[in-house]
C-alpha cells in the first residue's frame, strides 16, 4: 500500500487510466479529509483498492475545511454553499483540462459531505449556460454513506449538528448554540434535493440512481463502538449519529454497513465485507454507464401527401415509393382473388 499522505483542500486525483469511462468523486464529511476519511491504518481504499477493481474509472477526492463546517454562524456562515461552489469549480477545471466534459460522474459521499454534493447539484441546476450546469447534468449515480436527509424539523438538524460536532475533539463547545442558524440551510437542502431527483427521473438519459448506506452500530462516549442493546439503561451514551429513518430518502434503496458513523467509510482491505458491499454497487454502476445509451425513439412524422410514416422509411421519396409498392401488391392480390372467383363461377 502507498504511504498515507496529508489531506489537502481541493480536488486530488488518486487514479487515472489512459481512457477513463467515468469519474468517481469522493466527498468527505465533518472532521474528515480527502484521504483520512477513507483510510483505515495504511489502507486508503479509493486509492489502494478501487483502481484494481474498477480500473477504467478516474478516481478523485475532494477536500475542504470540514472542521469548521458546523461551528455556527459566527465562524462559518453559509459555508455549506461555499464548499458546494468550490466542488463545482474544481470539477469544472479538472474536466476541462482532461477534455472530459461529457464523462459520467459518480459521487461517493460520507456524512454531511453528501449534503455538500446535494447543494452543489442544486446550485448547478439553477445556472444557465454555465459549465457548472454541465457538471450537474453529468452526475448519474450517488452513494451516500451516513448522510442525513430528514429535512422536516429545524431543531432536529441543530441536534444532528451537535452530535456530529461531538465527534471532533477540538470543537469549541461554547459556540455550538449557534448551530441553529446553520440548521436552516441543512434543512432546506434536504427538502429541495428529493425534488431535484424527481425532476431528473422524468428524463431517462439523465436519471440519477441513488443508494443510501446506513450505520449499523452506535457510537458511544469518546467514540467507543457498541452494539445496539435497547434493554440497557445507558441509551443516551449509545447513539446512531444518523438514524435509519433519516439516512435515506423514501423510495430509494437503503443498505446497512456493520460499522458506526465514523468507521462506515473506512475498510481494512479487499476482503472487508463493507468494502465488498460498496464495491458491488460502484462496479455495477460503472459497467452500466459504460454501455452505449439506449437509442431514443424519434417522434413519428407522417407525410402530408402519402399518409405514410416518413421516419420508418427514410423520407418523403422513400415513403412514396413504399406506398406505391404496397398498392401494387394489393392490386395484384385483388385481381388474383377476382380471377379465382370467376373460375369458380364458371365450373
List keywords for this structure.
347 residues; alpha/beta; 7-stranded mixed β-sheet; two-stranded antiparallel sheet; 40% helix; globular
In short:
The protein is α/β, with parallel strands linked by helices and 347 residues long. It contains eleven helices and eleven strands.
Structure notes:
The chain has 347 residues and is an alpha/beta fold. Helices cover 40% and strands 15% of the residues. It contains 11 helices and 11 strands. The strands form 3 sheets. Strands 1-5-2-6-7-8-11 form a 7-stranded mixed β-sheet, sandwiched between helices. Strand 9 and strand 10 form a beta hairpin. Helix 4 crosses helix 6, helix 5 packs across helix 6 and helix 7 crosses helix 8. The protein starts with 9 loop residues before the first strand and ends with a helix. About 15% of the residues have low confidence.
Which spans have pLDDT < 50 for at least 5 consecutive residues? 69-78, 170-180, 222-226, 232-236, 296-315
For the report, how would you describe the main beta sheet?
Answer: 7 strands, mixed
Share in β-strands: 5-15%
The end-to-end span amounts to 96 Å
What is the SS-derived class?
alpha/beta
Q: Roughly how much helix do the residues carry, as a percent range? A: 40-55%
Q: Kindly report the spatial arrangement of strands forming the biggest sheet.
A: 1-5-2-6-7-8-11
* Whole-number mean pLDDT: 77
Number of separate helices? 11
- The Cα radius of gyration reads 28 Å
Amino acid at each position: 500500500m502507498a504511504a498515507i499522505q496529508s489531506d489537502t483542500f481541493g480536488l486530488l486525483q488518486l487514479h487515472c487510466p489512459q481512457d477513463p469511462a467515468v469519474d468517481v468523486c469522493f466527498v468527505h464529511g465533518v472532521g474528515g479529509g480527502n484521504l483520512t476519511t477513507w483510510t483505515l491504518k495504511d489502507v486508503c481504499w479509493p486509492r489502494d483498492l478501487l483502481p484494481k477493481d474498477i480500473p477504467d474509472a478516474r478516481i478523485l477526492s475532494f477536500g475542504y475545511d470540514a472542521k469548521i463546517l458546523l461551528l455556527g454562524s459566527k465562524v462559518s456562515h453559509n459555508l455549506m454553499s461555499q464548499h458546494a461552489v468550490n466542488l463545482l469549480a474544481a470539477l469544472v477545471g479538472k474536466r476541462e483540462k482532461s477534455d472530459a466534459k461529457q464523462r459520467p460522474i459518480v459521487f461517493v459521499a460520507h456524512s454531511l459531505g453528501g449534503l455538500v454534493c446535494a447543494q452543489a447539484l442544486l446550485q448547478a441546476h439553477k445556472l444557465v449556460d454555465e459549465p457548472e450546469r454541465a457538471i450537474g447534468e453529468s452526475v448519474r449515480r450517488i452513494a451516500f454513506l451516513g448522510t442525513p436527509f430528514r429535512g422536516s424539523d429545524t431543531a432536529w438538524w441543530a441536534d444532528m449538528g451537535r452530535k456530529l460536532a461531538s465527534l471532533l475533539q477540538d470543537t469549541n463547545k461554547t459556540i455550538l448554540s449557534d448551530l441553529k442558524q446553520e440548521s436552516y440551510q441543512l434543512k432546506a437542502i434536504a427538502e429541495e434535493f428529493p425534488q431535484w431527483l424527481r425532476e431528473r427521473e422524468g428524463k431517462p438519459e439523465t436519471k440519477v440512481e441513488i443508494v443510501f448506506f446506513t450505520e449499523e452500530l452506535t457510537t458511544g462516549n469518546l467514540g467507543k463502538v457498541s452494539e445496539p442493546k435497547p434493554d440497557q439503561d445507558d441509551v443516551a451514551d449509545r447513539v446512531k449519529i444518523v438514524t435509519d429513518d433519516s439516512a435515506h430518502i423514501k423510495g430509494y434503496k437503503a443498505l446497512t454497513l456493520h460499522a458506526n458513523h465514523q468507521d462506515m467509510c473506512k475498510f481494512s482491505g479487499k476482503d472487508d465485507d463493507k468494502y465488498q458491499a460498496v464495491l458491488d454497487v460502484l462496479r455495477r454502476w460503472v459497467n452500466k454507464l459504460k454501455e452505449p445509451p439506449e437509442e431514443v425513439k424519434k417522434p413519428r412524422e407522417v407525410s402530408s401527401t402519402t399518409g405514410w410514416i416518413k421516419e420508418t422509411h427514410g423520407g418523403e421519396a422513400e415513403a412514396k415509393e413504399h406506398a406505391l409498392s404496397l398498392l401494387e401488391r394489393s392490386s395484384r392480390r385483388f385481381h388474383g382473388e377476382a380471377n379465382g372467383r370467376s373460375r369458380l363461377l364458371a365450373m
